[in-house]
Amino acid sequence: MVNGAGTADGAGEAEGVAGGVGLTALLVAAARAIETHRHDPLARDVFAEHFVHAAPACAGWPVRIQQVPDGDANPLWGRFARYFGLRTRVLDDFLLRSVHAGARQVVLLGAGLDSRAFRLDWPADCVVFEVDRAGVLAFKHEVLDGLSAAPKAARTPVPIDLRADWAAALTAAGFDPAAPSVWLAEGLLFYLPSATETHLIDTVDRLSAAGSALAFEVKLDKDLLEYRDSPLYTSTTQQIGIDLLALFDREPRPDSAGTLTGRGWSTSVHTPFDFTRHHGRGPLPEENDALAGNRWVFANKPRP
């Protein structure tokens, strides 16, 4: 939102990933690093561990499952990290299918420490827009620049808070609303107030030409506190000091998938467990499961 890359300056890190929701970007980076080094990875992100090593806020966090004393039995670095690995794979596949179907603009909303512009094989004429707060993007740039990493598509950072007029900033950066695009809101919407989510979905709809696609993640729990004692939440708080329930917005959520369906989009809604069964690895349901309400939504705006 490395060994060899150095660390971000204090001001940049404080504004970007040192606390709050920004720190969750480092949690996902650590999970992607752990997934990358598994013998059966669902996704590979060779940049992820460098973000973890570059941020003092996550000193001592593991980047390999072998560094976790209880391994996959650990709720955070085992099950939860594998969830993030599965999510990465599923959304990678969705983005690549969408660009191969004709979309040439990729918009990552709340891009965080997403390195897809650098690690996925994009068509030559693709452009990837990364929308996030300036501090998050600055931290990411410093680490990737230190690695001399080269993007595999034209990459356009759009430094802006999603509570501001990000649509104007995106179009000013070169986004063309008349051309098909694929949008991604990964691990984002449940941190936003309900009205902000509604505005975001309305804006994506308005800026999407026919042939566009969108993937996003939501939680359907009516009461998030029902799972306050879930091992995923308690272990995340105890081991790395991130209280996800304090960060999630607990207002009643809008039916964004239903809104898009009503506007002519073709939508499908899946549990993460659907993809665990498809890929043969990943989390499965358990008692008192904080993942029970998670849904991954995929939407396509049909061509005439």
Question: What's the short story on this structure?
Answer:
With 304 residues, the chain is an alpha/beta fold. The protein has twelve helices and seven strands.
**Structural classification:** alpha/beta
The overall strand count is 7
Strand content: 5-15%
Instruction: Write the element-wise H/E pattern from the N-terminal end onward.
Output: HHHHEHEHEHEHEHHHEHE
Largest sheet: spatial strand order? 3-2-1-4-5-7-6
Question: With helices defined by DSSP (H or I, 4 residues minimum), what is the helix count?
Answer: 12
CATH superfamily: Vaccinia Virus protein VP39
Highest-level CATH class: Alpha Beta
Task: Give the N-terminus to C-terminus distance in angstroms.
Answer: 36 Å
Q: Please outline the major beta sheet.
A: 7 strands, mixed
CATH topology: Rossmann fold
Oligomer: single chain
Helix percentage range: 40-55%
Shape: globular
Q: What would the average pLDDT be, to the nearest integer?
A: 93
